[in-house]
Specification:
CATH architecture: 4-Layer Sandwich
Largest sheet: 6 strands, mixed
CATH superfamily: Carbon-nitrogen hydrolase
Number of domains: 1
Distance between the termini: 35 Å
Strand content: 25-35%
Number of strands: 16
CATH topology: Nitrilase/N-carbamoyl-D-aminoacid amidohydrolase
Order of helices and strands: EHEHHEEEHEEHEHEEEEEEHEE
Radius of gyration: 17 Å
């Protein structure tokens, strides 16, 4: 069994230190093995351009934010998956970090950039890979990756039990599609979305909230309201995600025929 949750909140644009302090304070007393945070929870989302993003992005191994979260993981003996604006040389990635008591466990860089993100970020270049947390095999994707079923399937074929999905969702049908991603791969998913909006001189983006946890048979285990701060934790049994039988003679993974796809 694993205790998994999400924190849905409203970041303040550009207030990286304040957003980090808010997250640490909120998670300090949580009873969980793994917590999932939204996409870009420290910087906010609606950048005026790449120059503004570059001023807010950080190298994970030189980041006070990462140091604070790792210290929290050590204190609470837990892991965190969080969105992160990652600076890497002259490139900037929309990334997600898997953090634990011993530091950075894994970095995933968003493969499918959404709309204006193509102006701000470099396209992701990290392979999809499964990591282990407390005996549970977890995969990571970010927000708009949801629209490409190949992402979830590639991780499921690697043996993923639980998909962590940091998000800044604006389209109102993603949450429903994630039920399909669960049932077609027989997995749990945790979508951690933000709510509220980024109001900037150059525009406004409103986010849909409704963070959620889904189960291997396509069931909605829990969903947050659209515009409210929510921290929620569920106890999940990863063995349910390892049973890929639909009938005694049908297996979601072994019955695939990729030579015809």
């Amino acid at each position: 069994m694993i205790r998994v949750g999400y924190y849905q909140f409203r970041p303040r644009f550009g207030d990286t230190g304040g957003n980090c302090r808010k997250i640490v304070k909120r998670l300090r007393d949580v009873d969980a093995d793994l917590m999932v945070l939204p996409e870009l929870p420290f910087t906010g989302y609606l950048f005026s351009g790449r120059r503004e993003l570059a001023a807010l992005a950080e190298e994970p191994r030189k980041s006070p934010i990462v140091d604070s979260l790792v210290a929290l993981c050590r204190e609470r003996r837990m892991h965190i998956v969080t969105g992160f604006a990652e600076k890497a040389g002259d490139k900037i990635f929309n990334s997600a970090l898997l953090l634990g008591p011993r530091g950075i466990r894994h970095v995933y860089r968003k493969l499918h950039l959404f709309n204006l993100e193509k102006r701000w970020f470099d396209p992701g270049d990290t392979p999809l890979a499964v990591q282990r947390v407390r005996g549970t095999r977890i995969g990571i994707m970010i927000c708009f990756d949801w629209v490409f079923p190949e992402v979830t399937r590639a991780l499921a074929v690697q043996g993923m039990d639980l998909l962590c999905h940091p998000s800044d969702l604006v389209l109102d049908y993603c949450q429903g599609v994630m039920l399909s991603r669960s049932v077609e791969n027989g997995i749990f998913t945790v979508t951690a979305n933000r709510f509220g909006d980024d109001r900037r001189p150059h525009g406004r983006v409103r986010f849909s909230g409704k963070s959620q946890i889904t189960g291997p048979r396509g069931e909605l285990i829990q969903r947050a309201p659209s515009q409210r701060e929510v921290l929620h934790v569920e106890t999940l049994d990863p063995r349910r995600a390892r049973d890929k039988k639909i009938t005694p003679k049908n297996d979601l993974i072994r019955d695939r025929r990729p030579e015809f796809y």
